[in-house]
Structures are given as C-alpha cells and as structure tokens.
Amino acid sequence: MKPIPFFKIVGPAVVLMAAVACVRFHPKPIASAQTMEDFEARRLDSPELRDFLLQNQETKGWPPAAWDLKSLTLAAFYYHPDMDIARAQWGVARGGRITAGERPNPSLNPLLGYNATTPVDEVTPWIPEVSLEITLETAGKRGLRIAEARHIAEAARWNILSAAWQVRSRLRGALLEAYGAGEKESFLAEAQKLQAEIVRILEIQKEAGEVSVYDLTQARVALDGSRLGAIEAARIKENTLAQLAAALGLPRRALEGVTFSFDCFRPPDPGFPAGEVRRHAVLNRSDILAALSEYAASQSALQLEIAKQYPDIRLGPNYQLDQTDSKWTIGLALDLPILSRNRGPIAEAEARRTENAARFLALQSQVIGELDAAVEDCRSALLKSQAADDLLANLARQEAAARTRRQVGEISKLELLGVQIELNASTQARLEALVQAQEAVGRLENAAQSPLDVRDWIYTKAREDSGPTKERKDD
User: Fold this and answer.
1) pLDDT tens-digit series, residues 197-239
2) Is 130 helix (H, G, I), strand (E, B) or coil?
3) Rounded-to-integer distance, Cα 353 and Cα 356, Å
4) Torsion angle of alpha carbons 201, 204, 206, 207, nearest 10°?
5) Are 187 and 329 in contact (CB under 8 A)?
6) CB neighbours of residue 9 within 10 Å
7) 388-410 burial by CB neighbour count: b if 16+ within 10 A, else e?
8) Is 139 exposed, middle or buried (0-12, 13-18, 19+ CB in 10 A)?
9) Contact in structure between 178 and 241 (CB atoms under 8 Å)
C-alpha cells in the first residue's frame, strides 16, 4: 500500500481546526423606530428595574412610596445611555487585554515543485514541499503588552465611575430644580390668595371711602404680578420635570403620578471636615485614578518599545518529498538590528509617558483648585441659608403675635394680611437661599466626587464594586 504524503494529512487537518475555532458573526441591527418604541416604554415600575434595585440596595415595597435621590440614581444608572457607553468602552478595553495576550500564529507554506528533466516513466517529476514558521517572542514582549492592556482596562473601569458620577450630578441638579420650582409654585399660590384677599378688603374700603384709588390700584397690580408669577412657576416646574426625566434616561410621561422625596436637600453642617473632603478627593477621585492607570499604561508601552530592540526568533521546519525522497530542514531567522534600533518608537513612547505625567499633575492641580473654591463657596452659601432661616423664624414669631393681636381686636385683618405677605416673601427668600446652598453643596460634591454625607449614598459601595452593573437578558 502506497503511503499517503504528509502534507495531504496535515493541510486539511489544520484547515478544519481553524474553521471550528472561528467565532461566528451574529447581526444585531438597530432600527430607529424600534429604539423609539423601547424608549417610550420605559417606566419606573418595570420589573427589570426592580430586580436591579434589589441587587444594589434593600428596597422596602415596590414601587417605592416616594423616590428619593438614592433610588432615582440607581434608576439613572440602569436607564441612562451614558452608562451604557462607559460600560461598552470598558468592554473594548477588556477585549484589548485578550488581544495583548494572544501569541503569534505559526504560518504554513505549502509549495509544489516540478523537475522538467526527470523522465516521466522512471519517477514522478512533482516535488511537494511544506514549510512551517513559528515565531518566538523575546524580551518579555507579551507580558509587557498584557500589562499595558491591563492598565488601559483599569482606566476604562474608573471612567465608568466618572460617568456614574456625572449621571448622579445631573440628576441631583434636576431634582433640586424640580424641588425649588414646586416649592415656589406653592408659595406663589399662597401669595396670590393673600393678595386677592387684600384686594377684596380694599375694594370694600374703597366703596366706603376709607382708602384711595391709588391704594387699590397698587394692590391689584401686586395681585396681577402674583398671578403671572404663579403661571411662570407652573411652567418652570413642568420644564424641570422634563429635565429630570432626561437626567434619568426616561420619557417625560414616565414621571406622571410619581412622588418624589426631597429629604436629601436638608442643609448640612457648615463645619463639615473640609480637610477630609479634600484628601478624599485627591486620593480617590475616579478621574485621578484613571489618569494614574493611563500613566502606568504609558510606562508599560515604553518598556514594550524598548523590548522591541531585541528581534524575535522565527523557527522554520521544512519537509520536502523530492521524487520519493523525504527531506527535512530546520531554519532559524531573525531581523538584524542594524539599520533600525527602534529609536523612533522609543522616543514617541517616552514623550507620551511625559505627556501623561503632565496631564496627571495638571488634573490634580485643577481638582485641588476646584475643591478650595467649592469649600469656601459652600461655607458661605450655608451661612447665608442659616441667616435666611433665622430671619424666617423671626417673621414667623411676628406673624404668630399678629394673629394673637388680631384675635383680641388690636389690629385689623388688613394689617395681619400684610404681615403674612411679608412672611411669604421671606419664605421665598429662604427657599432661594436654600437652593443656592444646595447648588454649592452639589459643586463641592462634584469636586470631591463624593457626597458630604456618605452614609446616605451607594457611590462608595459602587467604587468598591468597580461601578454599578446592569445585567440584561440580552447580555
């Protein structure tokens, strides 16, 4: 029995193994109409969101009786597209780690020769040949590639937390605006009732000749102003709810009938530990940690370019069936580092490392500057809010005294209404000071990338868990 040539066995076997190991393509088309329907179908009481909240915190009852900042933040982590983008970028970086760890494939080169001088009746003139080239990397290049890819993936993981904080920051700002608009609308509605009562009393007094037309006109102008203010406040409230829905990654109608809790906007102590906040930010801000990972990646990239000065070794075993004679050869090849010693890529990698170091120092300096300004701004705003609270408390005592005096007949109802109008105006001023204080708190939290009261926040846990995760059925 005539033996089967070696290359006839090896060739088909290699092709078959390569075909079996290949990853198949699975199309995932995107249709704008379908994505629009999916977006409009989002809601806060979905079972998928319930499961996500249960994975990240304890939930008492479903849906919550009132959505607070913590639960809304988790909903934004689940729905907002910025989180999907950050997670996808992390997935790309993790794919880069797989790429970095792969070894060079060997190459198989089949050849077929023909000896035209060989008599056909004596022996076959065909000379089949197959050669194999195997690359052996030197100087630890593969390990350096893996280290660089690992640091890049780490930076992408920290960027998820940066994206999470940006989502939380926008959500908190939108929730604060919705709180301020809702409170102002109720205060203006109360002021409108008081102004209407003043106008009614003055109209009676005008008929009796006790007040002038000017006094009545001034009261009517104030009433018209309060009516217009109430209409504008209602418009602003609706606009803030639309912004809140956008910050959550939801359609506006998903917030219809939803009750919100604004307990997170209680004013913190102006004597908060600024030193601890500053140190925590400098050591734990996710963008600073990402910048450190990027610098470490540039270090590994420089080491890799230095290692590329040493050429890889290529082994080349060769088999030839020379007219029924089996012949084996083994070759050894390597690039001679004579004309190029990889000086250019080394210089580029070293410059990129210097650039990343400068970027890190610039970011750290910027963060420290933002923190110093935010700390002073927050303290001043909180002191202003406390002063507004004191003024409001004083006016509330005056209004209570005026009620008592009205009951015993010492002052008229019109005088009591005047005190109540003043109290209402002070309440609006106090609301404005509170909103400004909370805006300053938000700026300080953004600079520190951490809430002032970490006990009420899941971001610290998210930092430990490498960011909030979202598991869906199609993952």
Assistant:
1) 999 988 888 888 888 888 889 889 999 998 999 999 999 999 9
2) strand
3) 5
4) 180
5) no
6) 10
7) beeebeebeeebeebeeebeeee
8) middle
9) yes
What is the rounded CA–CA span in Å between residue 415 and residue 26? 77
DSSP H or E stretch at residue 33: helix 32-40
Exposed (0-12), middle (13-18) or buried (19+): which is 180, by Cβ within 10 Å? buried
* DSSP per-residue letters across 148-190: HHHHHHHHHHHHHHHHHHHHHHHHHHHHHHHHHHHHHHHHHHH
Q: Which of 399, 398, 395 is nearest to 387 (CA)?
A: 395
* Tokens, residue 85: 């983008």
Helix, strand, coil abundance in the chain, percent, nearest 5:
65, 10, 25
**Region for residue 108 given its phi and psi (left: phi exceeds 0; alpha: psi -120 to 50; beta: otherwise):** beta
- Rounded Cα–Cα distance for residues 150 and 300 (Å): 10
Judge whether 98 and 152 are in contact, CB under 8 Å. no
- CA 38 to CA 343: how far, in whole Å? 54
Please give the structure tokens belonging to residue 67.
């959505």
Residue (of 299, 285, 278, 301) closest to 357 by Cα position: 299
SS3 call for 473: coil
129 alpha-carbon distance from chain centroid: 58
Query: What pLDDT, in 10s, does the model give residues 30-62?
Result: 888 998 999 999 999 899 998 888 887 656 678
Residue 258, helix vs strand vs coil:
coil
> Residue 310 carries which DSSP code?
S
Domains of the chain with CATH codes: 64-461 (1.20.1600.10)
Name the 3-class secondary structure at 453: coil
Structure token pair of residue 340? 């190029």
Structural contact between residues 297 and 383, judged by C-beta atoms closer than 8 angstroms: no
Q: Where are the beta strands (DSSP E) in 90-163?
A: 107-114, 126-136
Integer distance in angstroms from the first to the last C-alpha of the chain? 55
Task: Please state whether the peptide bond connecting residue 106 to the residue before it is cis, i.e. omega within 30 degrees of 0.
Answer: no
Q: What pTM did the predictor assign?
A: 0.82
DSSP 8-state class, residue 454? G
For residue 155, give both structure tokens.
Answer: 């930076």
